[in-house]
Amino acid sequence: MTRNTTLPLSRTKNTPSAADRRRFMQMAIDLSEQTLDAGKGGPFGAIIVRGTRIAGSSGNCVFKHNDPTAHAEIMAIRDACENLGTNDLTGCDIYSSGEPCPMCMAAIYWARIDTVYFCNTEKEALEYGFIDKVILEELRKAPENRKIKSRKITNPGGLAIFKKAKAMGIAHAVGK
Ligand SMILES: [Zn+2]
Predict the structure, then answer these.
(1) Residues classed as catalytic
(2) N or C end of the chain, less CB within 10 A?
């Protein structure tokens, strides 16, 4: 994760211009190259922006952290949430050097990010050996036809915790 993520850009308007958006994407692409060159992870970078201010950023950190979930978008969401002191990134956009994989897209929904801007597509990623699209195709299959199986184990204690959480009023839907 990077440090100087809350520095304002030159513009003071809240709505980014087309030039701002191109600059944010260039930053995401630059991060992807720095990440690759530093051996931190795959060639992916992501910037999260609120208005015209950078709220968070990261490259892919899968090798650095030995963490298969440390994709650039996930790490950038964590960085932005920490910097903004919230788990709700409503009003933020994400600029990703690559089209987000299914895991990251789900995280983007959980974070309630407004808009995703990406450069390289999932199809292009697959052409270069990154299997995002394969996972998406797996998820579209019925659970019983997926390569990784999911099995239900019944235990009344599980639902008891749901009931407790509901009584506490903390149930939290994605909402969009
Ligand atoms: Zn991802």
Answers:
(1) 73
(2) C
Question: Ligand 1 being an ion, which residues bring their Cβ within 5 A of it?
Answer: 71, 101, 103-104
In contact, 40 and 61? CB cutoff 8 Å: yes
Instruction: Tell me the CA–centroid distance for residue 68 and ligand 1, in Å.
Output: 9
Separation of CA 158 and ligand 1 centre (Å): 29
pLDDT at 172: 65
- Residues 72-129 have pLDDT tens digits of 999 999 999 999 999 999 999 999 999 999 999 999 999 999 999 999 998 898 899 8
User: Which of the four pLDDT bands, split at 50, 70 and 90, describes residue 169?
Assistant: confident
Give residue 16 CA to ligand 1 midpoint distance, Å. 25
